[in-house]
Write a structure and sequence with these properties.
The chain has 15 helices and ten strands. It is α/β, with parallel strands linked by helices. The N and C termini lie far apart (46 Å).
Amino acid sequence: MPVPLIERYRHRLSLEPGDPVVTLNEGSTPLVEAPVISERVGARVLLKLEGANPTGSFKDRGMTVAVSRALGAGAAAVICASTGNTAASAAAYAARAGLRGVVIVPEGKIAIGKLAQALMHGARVIALRGNFDQALEIVRALSDAHPVELVNSVNPYRIEGQKTAAFEVVEELGEPPDALAIPVGNAGNVTAWFRGFGEIGAAPLLYGFQAEGAAPLVRGAPVANPETVASAIRIGNPARWEEAMAAFTTSRGRIEAVSDEQILAAYHLLASREGVFCEPASAAAVAGILAHGLPAPEGEPTPQTVVCVLTGHGLKDPDTALGKAPAVIGCDAELAAVERLVFD
């Protein structure tokens, strides 16, 4: 049986000694070779499949720590703003802990798989007539005024849990990768990976990728109305802006934008050629290295080992998948008819 993330890394986490462990056996996700993408970029590319976490995204790493600390501190409820994955994860871990869960999502801007998860886990889901940034502003104000624990990535325990992915990659490879490619939305995850690498003396280049319609870090200014097919990174004013930019600068990496067309092309490539089904936002990491290559600081060699973080499972967003997939072929229940379709 997998060892729960907190039990595996508690000595590296800032929990209190008496805090309970609220776990769904998160972490220990696969690191998978990507031969097709490796050939295209001219380096060894591996995929960190964070969609293999219990609720289907990397958010579970931080949520196990944040909800464990909230329960240890005596909280009765947790709240978050979300484009989807945080909602699903917060709802699941709140249910596991016996806490009330409340999530606020942008109306009409959440993938159906994520909405279904949050509802089925028993959270109170509020659809805000606004965007994620407005939702986050509201839940921050609510958590300041009421005894409810905010579990967005502004919560330091979320970052503590998410940094463990960096430990796992180095343990499995036996050394740090030369570079890490990661989608960037609210910027908590890249902040966490940078912290994790730093705590074990690793310093890979960090490549961050935002969608063109939601690329405030690339533009250098907030985006009032972010738009992209990659709903998980449809964020116009990242909460961890300064920390993320410091991570890119210190690691001598960079932040770039990719178009929705490039994201969807990488999404299809991963599924059809690598056998890996991720949500569109996850594919931004692969779209980024395909579009922008693997630039190295002047005078240094091109990275030879690159880990792409695939943040969520493809089943999170079935509507996008079905909208881009080939049509289902109808057929009469006759051997000859089926045979023609199979072998023609």
